[in-house]
Design brief:
Structural class: alpha/beta
CATH architecture of the largest domain: 3-Layer(aba) Sandwich
Bound molecules: adenosine-5'-triphosphate, magnesium ion
Shape: elongated
Order of helices and strands: HEEEHEHEHHHEHEHEEHEEEHEH
Oligomer: single chain
């Protein structure tokens, strides 16, 4: 992941009004977005939102029914030279269970056109990267779910692609593997590549993505930085406090006081807290619930992200 040169920096993805139906089911209903060079872009949405279908169109596996996808100035994403600069981590793990970790990497490396010393060194790199060097000779069938996920991700990086399409790369893994995968992705981010990351975990989108598109029923409902989304659609944060005694007055602190119990809905909970501090009462308890992407989704759709 060393190639931080001009070829990476000029990469850009433009998606213009793409649609895709499977028979009578419209999976993607006209979406548009642009991903800038070096950006990690999140598609956040519940089951069936159309995330995988979008990824498959970007990777050249499916053709849109209408609309265009432009990757690095080219609109035919099925072209071999375009696909060679894309790495896809599929949602369904794509590994050969009867082959070892090393054999899987070697197989996928060859598919990407690697051979000889380059193939060997890239496979070594991938094992190291995914923390599986010591398990290289084990068949994948005896790997844990998290190990398979990590190998699945490493396979998509062998050919050092400029664009990475990751479809729920942490699905079904334990917290330890999830953290390892996050560290891996942070490392890839630093190399300046474009990452398109789909998830239905708002914490992941919040932690990794520069910008996030909220997707539901094949459409994008909103697109912005996490901060921007929360500011526009997240509603107010809630601050609840219990004081050691009833304050004489609230001195301009906006909120509701019942005896020693205080509750405020505010865009600026920390500012409210500072004002409370000036009231001269002590806090027995304090709870602040900051608005987050879950609230954004709830406010946009009336539903929770996870059912
Ligand atoms: N091969 C297919 N044939 C028919 N319908 C499909 C096919 N693939 C997806 N769909 C349908 O298209 C819609 C979008 O599916 P898609 O897999 O793109 O959603 P997703 O956002 O990736 O969901 P998940 O979070 O569950 O992975 C769903 O209604 C799904 O049932
Ligand atoms: Mg999916």
């Amino acid at each position: 992941m060393q190639r931080t040169n001009d070829t990476i920096l000029k990469y850009m993805i433009k998606v213009d009004n793409i649609t895709k139906s499977y028979g009578s089911i419209q999976a993607v209903a006209g979406i548009s977005f642009t991903i800038q060079a070096g950006e990690t872009f999140g598609l956040l949405g519940p089951n069936g939102a159309g995330k995988s279908t979008t990824i498959q169109m970007l990777s050249g596996l499916l053709r849109p029914d209408s609309g265009t996808i432009e990757i690095n100035g080219t609109t035919d994403t099925t072209r071999v030279d375009v696909r060679q600069n894309i790495g896809t981590t599929p949602q369904a793990i794509a590994l050969y269970e009867d082959l070892t970790g090393w054999e899987n990497l070697s197989f996928f490396g060859k598919l990407y056109g690697l051979s000889g010393k380059t193939l060997k060194s890239r496979c070594e790199w991938a094992l190291e990267f995914s923390g599986l060097s010591e398990r290289r000779k084990d068949r994948v069938s005896i790997y844990s779910g998290g190990m398979k996920r990590r190998l699945n991700l490493a396979c998509s990086l062998l050919h050092e692609p400029q664009v990475l399409l990751m479809d729920e790369p942490t699905a079904g893994v334990d917290p330890q593997s999830r953290n390892l995968i996050f560290e891996n992705i942070q490392q890839i981010k630093l190399s300046g590549r474009i990452i398109l990351y789909t998830t239905h975990y708002m914490e992941e989108a919040q932690r990794l993505c520069d910008r996030v598109a909220i997707m539901d029923h094949g459409k994008l409902l909103a697109l912005d930085t996490v901060k921007g989304l929360v500011q526009t659609y997240g509603g107010k944060s809630i601050l609840e406090a219990v004081f050691d005694r009833e304050p004489q007055h609230l001195n301009g602190v906006h909120g509701k006081l019942e005896g020693t119990q205080f509750r405020a809905e505010t865009q600026q909970p920390l500012e409210t807290l500072a004002r409370i501090n000036a009231l001269g009462v002590n806090l027995i308890s304090l709870h602040i619930k900051q608005a987050n992407l879950e609230d954004v989704f709830l406010n946009l759709t009336g539903r929770r992200l996870r059912d």
